[in-house]
Amino acid sequence: MSDKQVRSKLEKLDGFVFDEVPWTTPKPLSESRVAIVTTAGLTEDGNADWNPGDQGFNRIAHDADELTLAHYSPNFDRTGWIMDKNVVFPIDRLNEMADEGIIGSVAETHLSFMGAQPDHTLETIRLDSGPAAATLLNEDNVDIVLLTPV
Question: How many domains does one find in the chain?
Fold first, then answer.
């Protein structure tokens, strides 16, 4: 599907309106624990099969050796990923920032969703997998999420 076709399908899509806008005053960055949440469809098990419409997520360990990018969109350019995983999953940069004291620490658990979603209501993410993901991050005392949309 071309960019023009995608834009024509999505240009009239209504955004969600929330009754309240939550706000939390964050800790200083140097005291904050940071996790990565990506929409690249990453897996640790080498399985590149992510079913269209799957609104679940994978847990990615901070020390994962081998990651597979399972994003199934034909429009996604994988060149950057092939050259440097940090383009999608900047774990090395976070570790460097923690070592330098710029951030407090790097989370043990990071998360990967599939970004290419045919169901634009994202109901499962909003009501099920999203809250489950937030629970995991809260259990790891994550203060900040670095979102890498793909």
Answer: 1
Contacts of 45 (CB under 8 A, 6+ apart): 68
d(C-alpha 73, C-alpha 28), whole Å: 37
The pair of three-digit structure tokens given for residue 142, joined into one six-digit string: 């994550």
Domain that holds residue 138: 29-148
Any domain includes 6:
no
Instruction: Give me the pLDDT at residue 34, please.
Output: 98
- Beta-carbon contacts of 23 under 8 Å, excluding residues fewer than 6 positions away, are none
pLDDT at 27: 92
| Inter-residue contact 108 to 61 (CB < 8 Å) | yes
* Residue 27 structure tokens: 């800790």
Mean pLDDT by 10 residues, the chain (150 residues): 77 78 87 95 76 80 86 75 90 97 97 76 77 94 93
Q: Of 116, 88, 92, whose CA–CA distance to 106 is shortest?
A: 92
